[in-house]
Amino acid sequence: MTRTLPTSRSRLSRRTRVLGLVLAPVVAVPVAYVAWSAPRDQVALPGPDATPEQVVRAYVEALDARDFDTVNAIDGRPGSDLDRFDRPGQIHLQEMGDTFEGDPNGTHVMFRADFEGFDISMEDGWWGYYLVRGDDGRWEIVDEGVA
User: Fold this and answer.
1) Pairing mode, strands 139-145 and 125-133
2) H or E segment and range at residue 99
C-alpha cells in the first residue's frame, strides 16, 4: 500500500480552517457588541410647544430605545451626556403622576416606574424630574428625585 503525503495545499487549507475557527470569536464578539450598542429606535425631540409631561415621556422612550441624541438634547444636567457605548438603565413607565409648577421657569413631573439597571437609589415606584426651559424654549431636565 502506498501512502500519500498531504500536499502543502491541503495543509494550508486545514491551517486556514483552524485559524478561521480561532479568529471567528475574536472578530464576532466586537461586531456583536457594536451592533448591540446601536440605537434601537429614534424618538422625536419634543419642540417648545410640548408639555413637561410629554418631554418626560420622550426622555424615557429615548433612553429605553438607546436614542442618545434625543436623551442628551432633553437632559440638561452637566456631565450627563451618553454615548453609544454607555449602558444606562431602563425605565419602564407605569403611570404619569402630578405635575407641580415651581418657580416661573420650572416644573416637577412625577411618574411611577420600574427601574432596571440603575444604582440602588432608584427603586421601583415614584420618581420625578425637574424641568426648566432652555435657551431654545424647549423643556430640559435639570434635576431628578422625589420630594
Assistant:
1) antiparallel
2) strand 90-101
Backbone angles phi, psi at 52, to 5 degrees: -60, -35
Q: How far is CA 32 from the centre of its chain?
A: 16
Q: How many separate helices (H) and strands (E) can be counted in the chain? A: 3, 4
User: For the segment 50-95, what is each residue's pLDDT rounded down to a tens digit?
Assistant: 999 999 999 999 988 889 899 999 998 887 777 666 667 788 899 9
Which of 77, 81, 75, 93 minimizes the C-alpha distance to 138? Answer: 75
**How far apart, in whole angstroms, are the C-alpha atoms of residue 11 and residue 80?**
55
Is the per-residue pLDDT at 35 higher than 50?
Answer: no
- Answer whether 0.85 is exceeded by the pTM: no
The total number of residues written for the chain in this structure: 147
Q: In this structure, what C-alpha cell is assigned to residue 39? A: 440605537
- The DSSP output letter for 3 is P
